[in-house]
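Listing S7. Sequence submitted for prediction.
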Amino acid sequence: MGWVTSGGAKSNQSHPSLSAYADKEAFWKLLETLADVAKATDSSCAQVAIAWLLHRPSVSSVVIGATSLEQLQDNMAAAHLILPTNKVAMFI
């Protein structure tokens, strides 16, 4: 994923629909927190996002759409990920 700054706003070149969020600071704060938690837990951002969903009492199931065996294995590892409570609160 490649972050680019254009005219003071960040945008994500790999997913054009995210450009709608480029000027929303809360969106970038959330992504930075997600990346920080991933780094702290030695996991991927996808694993952190999936683990967060799995631990939400209001979420009955999580549907993932893996396009490769590697992505499926990465996503499945989220089931065993324990997230730091102080960081998880920042996602809400």
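Caption to Listing S7: primary sequence and predicted structure tokens for the chain studied. The mean pLDDT is 82. The two ends are 24 Å apart (CA to CA).
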